[in-house]
């Protein structure tokens, strides 16, 4: 495969991903970005986390995580809690409202992806699945 073909492949993958994010943002309509939902999803699956650990796990800078968590706390989707044995340690914890939000975000994302992939034939979907499985191996 030549460099031009690889460039076109990467460009089209990026274009598809960006298009998906833009459509999801319009559809979800909560003034939250994908990064906010990633933070909430991690908290939902793993429980309360120290912001530094959360940033490292999600590949974010501490400053970015601080910005994201400020908005989550302000919207009452997460709360800051102190460690019972060491009050210097602060955790970020998802609220019930945050759980509802991340569940709804995931459902809307699944609906959007389903709608987009309906354009493909069954054979194309199976071929695409094999490609993604190979790339993720």
UniProtKB/TrEMBL annotation:
Any one Gene Ontology molecular-function term assigned to this protein's record: DNA-binding transcription factor activity
Gene Ontology biological process terms from the UniProt entry: response to stress
Database matches in InterPro entries: HTH_MarR-typ, MarR/SlyA-like, WH-like_DNA-bd_sf, WH_DNA-bd_sf
Pfam families on file: MarR (PF01047)
Keywords on record: DNA-binding
Tagged with keyword Secreted: no
Boundaries of every HTH marR-type domain copy: 1-137
Name of protein: MarR family transcriptional regulator
Species of the source: Neobacillus citreus
């Amino acid at each position: 495969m030549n460099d031009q073909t690889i460039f076109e492949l990467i460009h089209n993958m990026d274009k598809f991903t960006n298009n998906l994010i833009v459509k999801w943002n319009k559809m979800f309509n909560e003034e939250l970005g994908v990064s906010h939902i990633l933070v909430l999803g991690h908290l939902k699956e793993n429980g309360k986390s120290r912001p530094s650990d959360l940033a490292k796990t999600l590949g974010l800078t501490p400053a970015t995580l601080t910005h994201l968590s400020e908005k989550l706390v302000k919207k009452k989707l997460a709360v800051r809690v102190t460690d019972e044995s060491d009050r210097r340690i602060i955790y970020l914890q998802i609220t019930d409202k945050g759980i509802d939000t991340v569940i709804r975000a995931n459902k809307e994302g699944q609906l959007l992806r389903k709608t987009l992939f309906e354009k493909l034939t069954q054979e194309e979907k199976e071929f695409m699945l094999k490609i993604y499985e190979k790339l993720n191996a």
